[in-house]
Amino acid sequence: MTCSQNRSILVTLPLLLLILETSPPVKCQTALSLAETKHSCMALKAEFGEGCVCKQTKRYGQPECCCMGWQVTQMPVNLTADVGYLYLHNTSISEVTSNFFDAYPSIRELEISDSVHLEHFDGSSLTVLPKLRKLSVTKCPNLREISGKLLVNNTRIQTVILKSNGLRTMPSLRMTDAHHVLVDRIDLSGNKIKFIGDSKVRNVKA
Ligand SMILES: *[C@@H]1O[C@H](CO)[C@@H](O)[C@H](O)[C@H]1NC(C)=O
Ligand SMILES: *[C@@H]1O[C@H](CO)[C@@H](O)[C@H](O)[C@H]1NC(C)=O
Ligand SMILES: *[C@@H]1O[C@H](CO)[C@@H](O)[C@H](O)[C@H]1NC(C)=O
To answer: What pLDDT, on a 0 to 100 scale, did the predictor assign at position 176?
Structure first.
């Protein structure tokens, strides 16, 4: 009796592992829809038009901050330190430098959109964000290059959207065995990428 019970455990265990490995990432970790994520930006637009606001949200109990408009010329130093969701919409920031996010290590979702001034993004800026799940940089027509290796230290990354920018070269995406989840979306559409070198995408679990 004990023997056959033991055997059934031995048989089902590999099956269970297989299911865990092949099932898509758990629902609660799925990136939020655009309408939900842009919430603080909409409030800012309605109330002030330009600048930065931070609001406490129920999502993971972390605040979200939105910066918007050309009067935002650089990454503000006075946002809530534990900001979990950061949106930079239509700012005049021209460069995301390597130390850009150092003051805000709790960021889980980062969205940069509609920024004609943005020209360069240093991928090493993301290494200080171990909780990052979603990276979205869209509609930045003058963003030609994302330098450095993206994702190396972002072991929880799930969604990478780099859509409708001016990228001419493929960003270097690097994942390691330390990455916990499968990436459910990588979108590089609407750029000017002509060639994808085979050294560019390494170990990406998508
Ligand atoms: C940050 O400081 C600027 C002025 O330097 C102010 O206009 C802005 O409202 C502040 N933002 C936050 C989120 O406190
Ligand atoms: C961006 O903001 C500037 C003013 O700060 C405004 O003139 C322009 O229309 C805005 N562009 C978009 C795409 O919202
Ligand atoms: C990568 O993340 C870990 C924490 O998860 C941190 O200790 C380490 O300094 C990070 N690496 C870099 C290059 O920032």
So the answer is: 85
Q: Which atom of ligand 3 is nearest to the CA of 155?
A: 5
Strand partners, 68: 51, 89
101 CA → ligand 3 middle, Å: 13
**Residue 4 located in a structural domain:** no
Is the CB of 48 inside a 6 Å radius of any atom of ligand 2?
no
Name the domain count of the chain: 1
Per residue in 14-24, pLDDT (tens digit) is 333 333 333 33
Most informative mutation of 41, 66, 90 for ligand 2 (most atoms within 8 A of CB): 90
In this structure, what CATH number is given to the domain that contains residue 97? 3.80.10.10
Q: Could you report the per-residue pLDDT of 22-50, keeping only the tens digit for each?
A: 333 333 333 444 445 467 788 788 887 89
Q: What is the pTM of this model?
A: 0.79
Three-state helix/strand/coil letters over 7-41: HHHHHHHHHHHHHHHHCCCCHHHCCCCHHHHCHHH
Q: Range of 41's domain?
A: 33-202
